[in-house]
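Components:
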Amino acid sequence: MNNLLEIKDVDLIIGQRQLLQQINLQLAAGEILTIIGPNGAGKTTLIRVALGLLEPTSGSVIRQANMSIGYMPQRLHLDPTFPLTVKRFLSMDRKRPAAELEKALTEVGAAHVLASPMQGLSGGELQRVVLARALMRNPDLLVLDEPVQGVDVHGQIELYQLITRIRDQRGCAVMMVSHDLHLVMAATDRVICLNQHICCSGTPDSVTNDPAYVELFGPQAVKQLAIYTHDQNHHHDACSDCCHRGERCAR
Amino acid sequence: MLDDFLFRALIGGLGVALIAGPFGSFVVWRRLAYFGDTLAHSALLGVAFGFLLEINLTFGTLIICQVLALLLFVSQKQRLLSGDTLLGILSHGALSLGLVALAFMEDVRVDLVAYLFGDILAIGTADLGWIFGGGGLALVGLIILWKPLLAITVHEDLAQVEGIAVDRINWTFLALIALTVAVMMKVVGLLLVTSLLIIPAATARRFAGNPEMMAVAASLIGCIAVGGGLIGSFYWDTPAGPSIVVAACLIFIASLLLPKRVG
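Structure:
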């Protein structure tokens, strides 16, 4: 009822390819939803449909009216010839006082880069700066496409912690895509496992025990996961409530 | 001391360089060099088109460039082919089609070299009208679109999510570039149009701390190149268009020797 975002029976076919099949999902205020799946599973495509950048072939996407969205795209490809400082990047939509910019950067732990050129940032710094720009829009919904891409493992843990903290402090919902199976599990309320269709969904615990998940990522990946969750006892239990209408990955 | 035609050439060249600076900056930021080439190469087809309909040749060029810009926009949107391949086909296809079309017109004798490499010394008052009227219009349009275009340059999807009408602005931008290219053709010729867009902009990058500074610096550097090229052409009797491009290249090389601006 009170969902920020609701995706109903969405199919997306471009050319001859079915990119998304029968996607149903809801996102409530304050919730962190993570979409995981292998390469080419349609994770970014689903995000783009949710944002309204792509029209679904059938089905509907309902976004709450007047919802403010902060978006962090997968990668910024800034040409080295483009002279853009972090300061300018953060005030592209309108002029903002320096104090506001500093506050936004401080929130994401990147206050020291304000005067740096965008192309001179490390992977982690760049992601934080892009996140700061999204946050300055005071989003009800934060959409993050692979937020930890190009960041080392230590930095990834920090970024996920930062995202959780932002949600806790601001109460915004977060919809993010992740490539990685392990670190993200600690930072999310609900996981959707995508491979064109939704293979399984639920809490991180239930999804990682789901046979469809094991099938999609292979037993090796699941075994590695145990290291991160410190939970070696239940990982062969089948999950009953997380499977989306009993579907399984057909492979 | 300046002959009248030399004066017109200088004024026309400076006008073109002023317009080319900001447009060239976007061309390098958005990696559109090949794109500009394609538009420029289609200009010869526009000349043929102009002869065929017996209309003003610059106007004919303008129409063909606009049609091609629209075609490029639509085919990129539809993701028909990878960008480079599509541009390669259109670019050389249009150039060759233009040459063939001109060859078919038996009663038309054109100075091909003038179209390929420019004929700045033959600039008339009507051409000056095109440069300052058409080019000025393009520049005003670019200034109006400046902010959203910068946002799109950073990331198209991000701009769209933040409420910018990306398609409409991209399309308008292409139309403005097509207008610029059509106007620039007279000065440096269709084979060298892109060079006057990208070389001054690339040179300006070293001295610019923000996009506006780079656009203005590119205009100034373009003006110096035009002045230098024309003087060289006058003293050594070299073709004017290529001399301007050589001057731009020399300035670029010289700029590499200067210390880079910090920050």
